[in-house]
Amino acid sequence: MEGDPNLQLRIFDLNCWAIRYLSKRRQERVGLIGDMLRREGFDLVLLQEVWSEQDYSDLKAKLGSCYPFSHYFRSGVIGSGLCVFSRFPILDTLLYQYSLNGYPYMLQHGDWFCGKSVGLGRCQHGGHGCFAPRFLQLHAEYCREKDAYLPHRLVQAWELAQFIRHTSKAADVVLLGGDLNMHPEDVGIRLLRGWTGLRDAFAEASRFEGCENGCTLIPRNCFTLKTELLPFPLGIRIDYILYKAISSFTVRCEELKTTTGTAPGMDIPFSDHEAVMATLHIQRQGRAAGATLSTPEPMLVDIVTEARTEVGVGLRAAQRQRYSAGRMAVLALLLLLVQATAALGALTGLAAEQPFPKLSFSGAPREAIGVLLLATGLHLFHTMEVKMLQGTEEQMRMALRVLQESP
Amino acid sequence: MEGDPNLQLRIFDLNCWAIRYLSKRRQERVGLIGDMLRREGFDLVLLQEVWSEQDYSDLKAKLGSCYPFSHYFRSGVIGSGLCVFSRFPILDTLLYQYSLNGYPYMLQHGDWFCGKSVGLGRCQHGGHGCFAPRFLQLHAEYCREKDAYLPHRLVQAWELAQFIRHTSKAADVVLLGGDLNMHPEDVGIRLLRGWTGLRDAFAEASRFEGCENGCTLIPRNCFTLKTELLPFPLGIRIDYILYKAISSFTVRCEELKTTTGTAPGMDIPFSDHEAVMATLHIQRQGRAAGATLSTPEPMLVDIVTEARTEVGVGLRAAQRQRYSAGRMAVLALLLLLVQATAALGALTGLAAEQPFPKLSFSGAPREAIGVLLLATGLHLFHTMEVKMLQGTEEQMRMALRVLQESP
């Protein structure tokens, strides 16, 4: 950004819902997304849920001429699903995997297997300036009324905020795009925005065009689950572009657009989510601006306290589950010991005197071993969960202390 | 570091080897470490392998008056074992867990269960300056000749280097202390130092006092395994303090010390590792210095290429293991299908005609299910391993491109 003090940056963000064998009309939609991206020529394209590396390779082949730089972030069993296409050289990437991401035994929700993460790229623009887009997906919300994953999502929001705070200074402009799986007024979003000073492109945009309230999951998109959106007739906004300027730059959102249920000129949408497109105006200032948080500190104290309370609720639930799993493992072990003693008794000739009641153990050892292994696995998993929730609660306590002590 | 342009910073680093039930004379040693730390009054204490939270709490209670700020990093099943004690306020912490860390089925090596990580603290000193110590432990080396974990340790070294590059700018001075489980000339250390510009306190120190060559695992320490050190009669150096200055500071290592087998004035050592103690002299400069790498670029290209080759070797091994596990899962599934068909045949009255050879399947379904589950688990694990190794190889390729293209 050396030389010309002004830069217009056009960013495209979309949760592509491209799960092999599961997502409807996947290949057709990925093709449409590629065509549109080539036509529109954005500066930076942030995509989520591109689970198939083949889809990424197809997009890369199609977009090579207008987006010469790209990166696919690998993680978890299935992958992170994150990829970036850029007009500017990508200097460096870093993947940060959240420490908590659902439960491996909740197969129907599948979040655990994705290795949800935040990807960081550092792109060079012009002379010496650079911007650092981060893009991500947080744990999905499956039931708003009884949201068992809220503590995990809050841990992710907190880790994301901390990651952004610690890595921001390496760039002039910080961008965050992705499916945060949180409504704008949710505590996780307020925490993320308050703790990092990131600004919401939808709220700040001079011009807006698209779905009402900037919604990105809407009933009129033919791929969305209508029952999930019943309480929200207009839809919900869970995909965001956030930004902030570091050092001697200012950023302003000139325009924000979303798609509106179908791809322009087509009969199907790009995805079950709407795409978010922002045009940012970046300007170099004369002098370096100090780091400021956009949320006043007393309000931030309230937000962190609220988040900490929720994490505490999750912590106590995890402790109960760890205890139950541990108890089951101990019971299975005791059963095995009883069986082993009975077998030993029989071997050493005590069997004739019948010191133990006649119980039928046929086949039981295998079941007991199975239960023991399963319960031990669960116990270990919930031990990790407890540790991560405790760690986050402790970090939030530290943040509150620093906030309250600051003049 | 505002106001006084000079600062002397005394740092203590030790791998405490404090594993409950396993480490010899643990409580006595932790007590000795606490006494010494209170007596010596360092500015910053970085401890690893404090696996028991009770030990951390005991240390915290003992050290509260001279080190009012402390933090314990939680991760994995057992924990990260990392904690920090500081004379200066800790503003913020962040834990980065490596994506690869050994194998869950290598129970005797146990690294997988520790959730090995790098902890980052940001400490405020004086007016506005701050320093950011990072402390960590990398995957242990169990056999130098046939080191199956080398690719994992290289992934960790690379992720650590990337993490340091991306988070460095948030502080004035970056410190790294810990048990890197690598000899000074190993490719992982050269990669870490070359890619981050960190300097080795041992190599740079004006004065040195301690074990020959700065070794931190020595044969005369009564807790070390003598057989492991047979090829190295003087011992090996695997614990380090590294540093670099960001922005307008310079750092110089005035003195480096190690313990020499026993705790001063005692008959036992603090740990099976020797402690490393550095005295750094930090000075504010008039103007901001540019970011420089200490290793010349052509040499850095060689180092990254060498590391990438090793990661490639690990990748091919992981692909082979993934393939074997997948094949075993398919075989187990086929066996189950054959059994199910046989059972179905018997049920539908076909049994009388004996369409299948008479095979004894008694108890077999359970075994087949067991093998299927185990092989599937292994397949998933090695799939993750392949993805992370591929991701690291890709990042290194990108780094090489940037290095080769830079003027």
Brief description of this entry?
Two copies of one chain form a homodimer. Chain A is built from eight helices and 13 strands.
Oligomer classification: homodimer
Count of helical segments of chain A? 8
> How many extended strands of chain A?
13
What profile does the largest beta sheet of chain A have?
A: 7 strands, mixed
Main location (chains A, B): membrane
GO molecular function, one term (chains A, B): sphingomyelin phosphodiesterase activity
InterPro entries (chains A, B): Endo/exonu/phosph_ase_sf, Endo/exonuclease/phosphatase, Sph/SMPD2-like
Family (chains A, B): Belongs to the neutral sphingomyelinase family.
Report on this model:
Two copies of one chain form a homodimer. Chain A has 407 residues and is an alpha+beta fold. Chain A folds into two domains: 7-295, Deoxyribonuclease I, Chain A, CATH 3.60.10; 298-348 and 358-405. Chain A is built from eight helices and 13 strands. Chain A has helices spanning 26-40, 53-63, 111-114, 150-167, 187-196, 201-204, 297-347, 364-405; strands at 6-18, 44-50, 69-73, 82-86, 90-97, 117-124, 130-137, 173-179, 199-200, 207-209, 239-245, 249-258, 276-284. At the A-B interface, strand 3, strand 5, helix 4 and helix 8 of A face strand 3, strand 5, helix 4 and helix 8 of B.
List the defining traits of the structure above:
homodimer, 407 residues, alpha+beta, Deoxyribonuclease I, Chain A, seven-stranded mixed sheet, six-stranded mixed sheet, 23% strand
